[in-house]
Each structure stands twice: as structure tokens, then as C-alpha cells.
Here is the input.
Amino acid sequence: MSDDDLTPEELAELDESVDEPAATPVKRRRTLWWPAALAATVALCLGVPALVASGSSASGTVAAAPATDSPEAGFARDMATHHQQAIDLSFIVRDRTGNDEVRNFAFDIINTQANQRGMMMGWLDQWGLTQNSAAQPMAWMKMPMSYQAHDGSLMPGMATNAQMDQLRSLSGKDAEVLFLQLMIQHHRGGVEMAQGYVDVAQNAAEKRLAQSMVTAQSSEIQLMTDMLAERGAKPLPDSTNM
Here is the structure.
């Protein structure tokens, strides 16, 4: 059904249901929209066959699905958890500020990371593996990190429950600054994890996704650093939650 087929009342209801704010200046939006587009492109490039098995041999025979303790399964589980908190943080700030630039950036994170999270959960399902494991987070890495989980921060870069509550208590510029600071740390941890998987990857499709995370989130760290500077603030020290 096209817009021409809708009644005036239905069109008004549709307009009211759209939560995304008005577009920001063109120059900044060109920087902000591309991670979501990249995720969509990655999804198209990987295709359905990538979900079915871990790859194919030179003879064309489909290889066995990854084991539950493999880097492939571990990365999918851990990054899905990491992504979920980024989505949660973005939803919080979206409701705590009226700034179009920050709200649009938060929307891009929600869109991109929900897309990627769905892909990783889909892989686990197709491999016949559980979405959770008793293994310690990041135990699959070539050089496992000795990170001590605390107050809801399960992996490097993840915010604590106290920081999440603090963000919920703020509004306006204060919320924007804390969100950007927490998300910079979150991206730093995510980049480190994604690069850790790229270094040991046996699944070509999953490796491509991880590499796309390294590239996109590294760029977004610089973008968020610039956004903080515009607000007279700086990133938190590297040692915080890392």
C-alpha cells in the first residue's frame, strides 16, 4: 500500500509514530549514517549460506560447525552481550536529550548493533549452539584478558550498573557528555575484542563482520571524541572499566 492509499487520519498517525528526530546538517549526517549502511551491506555480502556452517573446504565440502568452546562461538556470544549494552545505552540517551546530533548517532548505534547482534545469534542457532555458556567472557581469545567483572561490567569497556543509573538520572548536555564518554570506552573494548577474533578466526564470514566492527567503531571513537570537545569535555581515562 502506498501513501496515496492512506486516509488523512492514517497518515497523521504514521507521522506521529516516527520517533527519529529531524536530520542534522548534511556534513555531520554523512559521518553518522554510514555504520548502519555498512552493517546492511555486510549482511547482504555474508548471505544465508554463511549461517549454515563454518565454511567450505577447497573441494567444496561443507565444513563442520564450530564447537561450543571455539573462538567462533565465544566471540559471537561475548560480542552479542557487549552489543546489547551499547543498544541499552543508546536508548537511554535518546530519551534524555533533545539534541538531534546525539539522538541520530544513538539511533545509528541501535540500528547497526542490533543488526549485527541478530547475525551472531543466528549463527549460534544455525550451528546448534546455545546463546549462553558457562565459560568466562573472552576465554576464547588467543591471550585471554584477566578482566575482573564487577557491577554488571562483564567485559572491558562495558559500563557498570552505577554508570547506567547515573546516565538515566541526567538530561540535556550532561547526559550527552556521559553517554559519549561511556560509549567511547565501550567501543574501545569492542574494537579490542573484535581484533582479537580477527587474529584467530577460522570462519571467513564472521571474520569479515569482526573486521567491519574494528573499522567502523575506530572511526566512531574519533567522531565521539570530537563531539565531546564541542561540549567542553574529554574521554574518560583508559583505565576506567578497561
